[in-house]
Every structure is written in structure tokens, then in C-alpha cells.
């Protein structure tokens, strides 16, 4: 009887020890993981600092795009239904790369100067006529640091101009830019 | 008669020289590569044989254009690129300036940096090739966050198991 009671007591005691051991282990793991979690969270919060720097590329080349263009171009006199004389425009490539020149009208809605036309040569294979916005021409790089000169023709063609010009417009001007870009 | 011809020729030569302007830009090609959000910079030099006020602008394309400026028809803001450079600069002989760019999205971008002279008809530009890769997806922050979530789940499972036992 005493033995049975002692056995029951022992089993209960063993159960309590095991139970508390497990609880302790769980508690230990809980504390450990909480500490780890809080460490990671705080580390994560510290990661939000922003570092910024300007990183400059190495200067390994000295290719230069350089052009010489006229300051001013006068196209002459013209009336509705006519076209001006073809002006021969010279552009010099003074850099060390091949360039493509694209004429661009600053005000694309300019009713007069949107009728500017271009042509590489007046005759032959290279004589296609193109309107401003669709024209560009190439100039090869000069040999041995000099300059290479190229020309094209430009004129104002009002033969198909539909608006009415009711008074003389002396000194009518438009801003045209000859944009030089290196060839790919 | 001969003097008159020489004088006329001299006048023509002088007049033609007076009405031309020489402008230069270096380098002609700008190649930059980096990650999204990274500030990438390049030094450029602008020069002129006259005192000229230049206006700068940049134009972009997502496809590699051929040789025409007209193919560059997008603004930097439309591609979520932030380009920082001097939009106006007075150049007496030569000026060195910085061109910096930051991209929000990865990809290849093709652009031009153009400087137009306020006097005259000239403008010069550099071609820009920008290669942007995505910022590393598994950064330290992301790994920490994932670890934390994993540990939290593990903890909950352990507590639940102990409670059940």
C-alpha cells in the first residue's frame, strides 16, 4: 500500500519535473528567439541610413565633337508661290569624330520656315530633297587634326504655301539650329 | 583694278570668318552603368572660340537610334531618369561641368546631352548610353526581415506544441 502510494508520488514528481523542464526549455527558447528577433529588428532599423555619393567615370578618352557653323544665314527675297535661291551652307567638322548634322526649327509651328528644304547636291545620286525635320547629313572626321568642310543647300519653298500673306514681312526670322551629334 | 579684286577677296574672307562660330564638346560618347537609384556622373568640357551662352537639354530614347537627333524624342522625366547638369552656362574659352544621372528603373537608355549656343546656329551633343541593373533583391535588410518572420513562426509553433503537451 505504502509502496503503491510511493510509486504514485514518484510518478507525479517525475511528471512535474519533466513538465517544468519542458516549460523551462520552452521559456529559454522563447527568450532566446525574442532576443534574436529584437536584435534583427533593431539591426534592420539601423539599415535605413542613406549613403549617397557622386561616382565619376574614368577619363579614358579624349574624343571631341566640334563644329564650325555660320552665325547667320540670309535666304533672300521670296513671295507666295515662289522659292528662294538655294543657299550653299558650309559646315566644318573641327573635332576628331564623324558627325551627323540635323537642322532643327525651334518653333515647329512656324508657318513660313517649316517650308525649308535641304539637298546635299543639286544633281546626281545625292540630290534627294528633304524638308526640315527629315533631313540630316554626315561629315567625316578630318584627317590629322585639321578640319573637314562639307556643304549642303538650303532654301525656302513657298510654292505650296496655302496661307495668305497680306503684307510684306521684311526681315522675317526663325531660329534654326544645326545639331551635331557623333555617329554611333 | 587688281587692288580692288584683292580688297574684295579680303572682305569676303573676313566676312565669312566673322559670321562663323566654333563650338566643341568632349567626350562625344558618355557610357555609364550602375544600379537603380545610383548617382552616375561624368565630367564634360564645353568650349567655344567666342564668349557664348549655352543652353543645355537632354533627350532620350529606349531603342538605340541611328544617327538622327530627331529619333531622341523622350524627356528624362518620362523615363523616370533624373539628370542633373547646368542648363545654362556662359563659356568664354573652356568650361568643365559635371553631368549626373540617376535611374529609377532598370534597362538600357539612349540619350543625348545637347548644348545650343544662344548666338548663332550651332549646337553640339554627346551620345549617352546608360545601362541600369536592378538593385540586389536579397539585400541585408530583406534577409533580416525574412529571418525574423521565420523565427517568429517557429516560436509560435513551439509555444503551441508546449501548450498542447
Please name the defining characteristics of this protein.
heterodimer; A: 184 residues; alpha+beta; Immunoglobulin-like; five-stranded antiparallel beta sheet; three-stranded antiparallel beta sheet; B: 165 residues; five-stranded mixed beta sheet; four-stranded antiparallel beta sheet; 2 helices; 25% helix; rod-shaped
Describe this structure in words.
The complex is a heterodimer of chains A (184) and B (165). Chain A is an alpha+beta fold and 184 residues long. Chain A is built from 1 helix and 9 strands. Chain A has a 5-stranded antiparallel sheet with strand order 2-3-8-5-6, with no helix packed on it. In chain A, strands 7-4-9 form a 3-stranded antiparallel sheet, with no helix packed on it. The model of chain A has no long low-confidence stretch (mean pLDDT 81). Chain B is an alpha+beta fold and 165 residues long. Chain B has one domain: Immunoglobulins (Immunoglobulin-like, Sandwich). Helix content of chain B is 25%, strand content 45%. Chain B is built from 2 helices and 9 strands, in the order H-E-E-E-E-E-E-E-E-E-H. Chain B is rod-shaped. About 5% of the residues of chain B have low confidence. The interface between A and B is large, with 54 and 55 residues.
Low-confidence stretches of chain A: none
Query: Which assembly state applies to the chains in this document?
Result: heterodimer
Poorly predicted spans of chain B = 10-18
* CATH topology name of chain B: Immunoglobulin-like
Query: Mean pLDDT of chain A, nearest integer?
Result: 81
What is the annotated CATH architecture of chain B? Sandwich
Secondary structure: number of strands of chain B = 9
- Termini separation of chain B: 123 Å
**Shape descriptor of chain A:** rod-shaped
Task: Sum up the overall morphology of chain B in one term.
Answer: rod-shaped
Order of helices and strands of chain A: HEEEEEEEEE
Over all CA atoms, what is the radius of gyration of chain B?
Answer: 28 Å
Rg of chain A = 42 Å
Distance between the termini of chain A: 104 Å
CATH architecture of the largest domain in chain A: Sandwich
| Major sheet size, sense and barrel closure of chain A | 5 strands, antiparallel
Give the helix level of chain B as a range of percent.
25-40%
Count structural domains of chain B: 1
Mean pLDDT of chain B: 85
> Pairing-aware structural class of the strands and helices of chain A?
alpha+beta
